[in-house]
Structure formats: structure tokens, C-alpha cells
Amino acid sequence: MPRAEEIANIRDERELVERAGHLLAGADEFACAANDLHTWSAMQKFARELPKERKLRVRKVYLARVMLDPAGAEHLRTLHELGAEVRISDHEINETILLDGRVAILAAGPGYNVVTAPDLVRGISSLFEAAWRSSTAMEAYETRFAELRQYTPQLLDLLSSGSTDEKAARAMGVGLRTYRRRVAELMDVLGATSRFQAGALAREAGLL
């Protein structure tokens, strides 16, 4: 059983940087899994401010819906150009940061847990590595998402307006089958099982 000092509860991002920033500053390997660009925004800002001469291996896995947002896609391309290994997952992932395989930081609602218990960290690392292996290099998504990003804003507006499929298809200037195919593609990327859920997930991802 882990000792109390091996699991620290952190209230918010500010406290996370204050109490765990030094761990990132001294790390050689940084691995991150996130559903969107918001969960670890403070830690990412802190990482950008570290001395550029440091050799830090960075691996990041994001949910596919991040690629729907042009700003999100551009951010991931920038990370890749700066040397980070970026992959995209089609499945929900445990939002995690791993530092040198010795420290795990878990998103826990509005707060975070910093874990240093070796057995727990190894288990969390195994989950990350499984997500990493089953994900796809970001570059492979670019062609697919280039078209999807173009019509996503209008498609989301039409879905939220309650328009019939026939009316929405006419508004987009496409056939009914094409419209329904695009809706299905969008739902697939968002991980939604219904159009209502697609709207909720789009709002959560900042697309609406």
C-alpha cells in the first residue's frame, strides 16, 4: 500500500506548477496523455519557459477531436516541429503526465494527484504505453482531417439548430447521403454515440 506522502492531492493548476514544476524542470523524459489542450495548459506553459538547451524527450497523445479545431491542429504541428513525438488516439484516454517513469500526475476532476509510489507509477506507465502503441502518428491524420475541419463549424451549427437532414444538406450544398456521411464521420471523431452527445462533446472541446 502506498504511503500518504507518495500521493499528493493538488487543488488547481497554479498549485500544480508550484509543487510539481521542479520535477518537470529536472526531467529527461516527459510523457503526456490528454483529451484536449486545456487539462495541462499550465504545465505546458511552464515547459515552454524551460531553457531551450535542455534535451527533453517529449511524447504526447491526444484525442482525435483536438484535430478538428484549426488552432488545436496548428498547436500540435508546432509541437511536432519543435521535436515532440505526437500521436492521436481514437479512444478515451486517462489524462496523465509521466516524468522519467518515476512520477505520475493524474487529472482528478478540478484537481490533480501527484503519485510517486513505484508500483502505482509502473501501472500508470503501462496504461500510457498501451495508449501510445494503439495511437497513430499525427501526420497520418492530416489528410483525413483537412477536409473534416473545413466543414465541421457549419456542420455543428446545423446540428445544434435542429434542422432536418434534408434542410441541412441543402444548406451545405451537398446530397443527403453526403451530409449523413459527414455527420457520421464527425460523431466518430468526437467519440459520440448520438447527435446530442456530439454537440455536448463539441462544446466540451471548445468547438462550439
TrEMBL record:
GO molecular function: DNA binding
One biological process term in Gene Ontology: regulation of DNA-templated transcription
InterPro entries: Sig_transdc_resp-reg_C-effctor (IPR016032), WH-like_DNA-bd_sf (IPR036388)
Protein name per its UniProtKB record: Response regulator transcription factor
